[in-house]
Amino acid sequence: QAQLVESGGGSVQPGGSLRLSCAASGFSLRYYAIGWFRQAPGKEREGILCTSPSDGSRYSADSVKDRFSMSRDKDRNMAFLQMNSLKPEDTAVYYCATDFGLSCTSYYSAQPVRQDVGSWGQGTQVTVSS
Fold first, then answer.
1. Nearby residues of 9 by Cβ (< 8 Å), 6 or more positions away
2. What is the pLDDT of residues 56-88, one digit of tens each?
């Protein structure tokens, strides 16, 4: 059974950094596109980043460009979200997810987010506050 588990969330001051992890089991991250999403209090869930090792496609939301980046460790079957220069508006629950496709399609960027499709983690809370 495919499963994703996020970890690494916590509280950080504005301007700080945090690295989230996403551990996959039951399937391999070696070829699938995977993305990071977030849901702030009172707001819709939004896709922020996606990468695909199969076709090289990428997506990065304007709100996180030049501050957030993602990577993956194929041997450990994990993906990571590096968040730098954090702002209070980055406070949200962060999720990793995949639709088991090979490209960063609109699944990772469109609204509303298709939470009923693919595999989703349970989320990890990130709070940016002084």
1. 18, 20, 93, 94, 124, 125, 126
2. 999 999 999 999 999 999 999 999 999 999 999
| CA angle 92–94–96, rounded 5-degree value | 165
Q: How does 81-95 read in b/e, with b if 16+ C-beta sit within 10 Å?
A: bebeebeeebbbbbb
**pLDDT tens by residue, 97-120:** 999 999 999 999 998 899 999 999
Which residue's entry shows tokens 């609204």? 111
CA distances from 33 to 18, 40, 126 (A): 22, 23, 23
- Say which amino acid occupies 60: S
